[in-house]
Amino acid sequence: MKTWIAFAARGLSGLALVACLSSCLSSCLSSGNCGSGGVVPAQGSAADLHTQPGVYDGFEVQGPVRCTSVRTLLMVNGLGTQAFWMPGDPCRNPAGLDAGIPDACGPTLHGVLQEVAQCFWAEGAYTVQILEGPGHAACDSGQELPSEYLHIERWQDADAALTYVGEALRARDLGENAAVMIEPVIVRCAM
Q1: Strand ranges in the chain using DSSP code E only, listed in sequence order
Q2: Most exposed of 28, 122, 127, 169 (fewest Cβ within 10 Å)?
Q3: Which residues of 21-47 are buried (b: 16+ CB within 10 A; e: fewer)?
Q4: What CA–CA distance (Å, rounded) separates 142 from 139?
Q5: CB atoms within 10 A of CB 50
Q6: pLDDT, tens digit (0-9, with 9 covering 90-100), for 7-22
Q7: What is the pLDDT of residue 4?
Q8: Using the 8-state DSSP alphabet, how is residue 128 labeled?
């Protein structure tokens, strides 16, 4: 059986990338896991999500939205007073921006998601990634995705993802939102 993995692994060190690829390969190589159309379903089910929609300390969690038959969108809204820094806004630390320091100019969606992903990577969950939205409707309902979102492949990680995202928004006093997408691994399996 030959297996090709097709997904972005942005921001991972070499060791983390190897661990991520190993995880994805093992899920595809297990008998019957290749799925239909090369889609390995997200592990677990919606029953593994225990965080209820509602207001928490500094953030709000919206109920899950079924985006497609294999993708579920979870939104976290910050309840702070600040907005994401956007290009064209004054930069509080231009030298830090040039040095590649996340959020050097001000809080960004990427900085929030990067902090969250690093929490998972520190726990050995290397399949959690920051992915870019397609820039067009990504859900069957027509709902668009943000420019970036946190990709997770296990329903069991959803509660932690919501908490980490909410805490990152609260720590930055942001009144912005961030998305978590529970979605499958896309693979191409051939005999």
Answers
A1: 2-5, 39-40, 54-56, 59-61, 65-66, 72-78, 129-132, 148-152, 177-182, 185-190
A2: 122
A3: beebeebbeeeeebbeebebbbbeeee
A4: 5
A5: 8
A6: 333 344 433 333 333 3
A7: 28
A8: -
> CB count, 10 Å around CB of 127?
22
Given a cut of 80, whether residue 189 has pLDDT beyond it is no
Whole-structure pTM value = 0.76
- List, for residues 21-32, the tens digit of each pLDDT value: 334 434 444 444
Mean pLDDT over the full length of the chain? 78
Q: Are strands 148-152 and 177-182 parallel, antiparallel or unpaired?
A: parallel
Report the alpha-carbon distance of residue 170 to residue 20 in Å, rounded. Answer: 29
Give 148's contacts (C-beta < 8 A, 6+ positions apart).
Answer: 109, 110, 113, 130, 131, 132, 133
Taking CA atoms, 99 is separated from 13, 90, 91, 104, 115, in Å, by: 18, 17, 13, 9, 17
Encoded tokens for 136 = 């067009």
**CA dist., res. 78 & res. 176, Å (int):** 5
